[in-house]
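Researcher: Good morning. I'm working through a list of sequences from a screen, and I'd like to move beyond sequence-only analysis. For each chain I'm collecting a predicted structure so we can compare shapes side by side. This is the next one on the list. No need for commentary yet; just the structure.
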Amino acid sequence: MGLVVFLVTLVAVLAAAGHAGYLAMLTSAAKKRPGGGPAAEFAKKRMPVAGVMLGVTLLAMLIGTGETWGADVFAVLLAAGGGVGSVKALQTSQSRFREGHY
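Model: Good morning. Structure tokens for this chain:
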């Protein structure tokens, strides 16, 4: 069970870190371009969501290091929720830029 918990939490942390990294790169690129202010502001507004999701998934990974079965189940549920939330938030951010909102 420990390996499954580790893999699920690792994938969730990577998804959350990917969302945060995407927003960080977007902010950096938008600041360098003329007229990129609205995109940078949008990314800054989304950054707390990415930070919370990353924190949730890291907490799940920490809980998953426990020895009890209940902690493992809770860690998997927490990581799955954080990972799915991060992927959905990333998709929302990407779709707004593809549609030309910024």
